[in-house]
Amino acid sequence: MFQLNDKAAMVTGAARGLGQAIAVKLAEAGADIALCDLNAEWLEETAEKVKALGRRAECYGVNVAEGDSVTEGVKAITKDFGKIDVLVNNAGITKDGLIMRMSEDDWDAVLNVNLKGVFLCTKAAMRGMMKQRSGTIVNIASVIGLMGNAGQANYAASKGGVISFSKTVAKELASRNVRCNAVAPGFIRTAMTDALDEEVQNKMKELIPLSRFGEPEDVANVVLFLASDASAYVTGQVLSTCGGMVM
Ligand code: NAI
């Protein structure tokens, strides 16, 4: 049920972090991977990991916030792989600040990558999925999109938007057997959280019933579930992956 043999998956923001973990997880399940990030060269490390699993990896320089770049990227991927079965919209950025001090540029930058990027990639990839009458789209949101967070108005709005966008895609594409779900990660262990001092880390852990930060692989496992036939009857849902922080 969790197999992705003969599937082609497109993963955005795949150069590092969650995107890299997701690409490797989908490759472990048997998928060939179209890796996308701002610069194709940044994707070499992820590509090596995918190839080491015996799967195909191709790298594409795609700016998800720019329509022409996305159209070109999806065209190239469709030509190279023949199809896109799985789309994981993972690319995302933060530009934090209190609303009082948040610039219009910082608002636009975050909304353009995190929300418009999801729209552009979905629109470009869904045509083929509709034609082949199968496909799964997994959008990486955040618990912040469900609960809000002081200092992250732009990020929270973008991730809340990703959640409602995902539900709409699910409704529009269900009749073509294309599913769309969102994953809402909580605190995931990255270079950023590792750098926090122990006291801050312990305070954050008190908010998490499972008393630990998530690992990138915890998120990747949920993405694999939603990308595979194991979730064949699941669409339009948001699956929090946060150690119980949000219920
Ligand atoms: P990261 O910053 O380590 O990686 C993001 C990747 O996206 C980078 O490789 C970056 O180059 C790429 N990217 C940025 N802008 C892009 C654009 N315009 N076009 C194409 N690629 C672009 O981030 P991380 O932590 O791996 O996060 C991945 C996703 O997970 C993001 O959407 C983030 O909001 C979400 N998330 C992360 C959490 C965490 O604790 N790390 C928690 C909740 C959500």
TrEMBL record:
Function: Catalyzes the NADPH-dependent reduction of beta-ketoacyl-ACP substrates to beta-hydroxyacyl-ACP products, the first reductive step in the elongation cycle of fatty acid biosynthesis.
The protein, known as: 3-oxoacyl-[acyl-carrier-protein] reductase
rRNA-binding listed as a keyword: no
UniProt KW keywords: Fatty acid biosynthesis, Fatty acid metabolism, Lipid biosynthesis, Lipid metabolism, NADP, Oxidoreductase
Domain of life: Bacteria
Keyword rRNA-binding: no
Reaction catalysis annotation: a (3R)-hydroxyacyl-[ACP] + NADP(+) = a 3-oxoacyl-[ACP] + NADPH + H(+)
InterPro entries named among the record's database cross-references: 3oxo_ACP_reduc, KR_dom, NAD(P)-bd_dom_sf, Sc_DH/Rdtase_CS, SDR_fam
Family according to the record: Belongs to the short-chain dehydrogenases/reductases (SDR) family.
SMART domains: PKS_KR (SM00822)
Native organism: Pontiella sulfatireligans
Summary of subunit composition and partner proteins: Homotetramer.
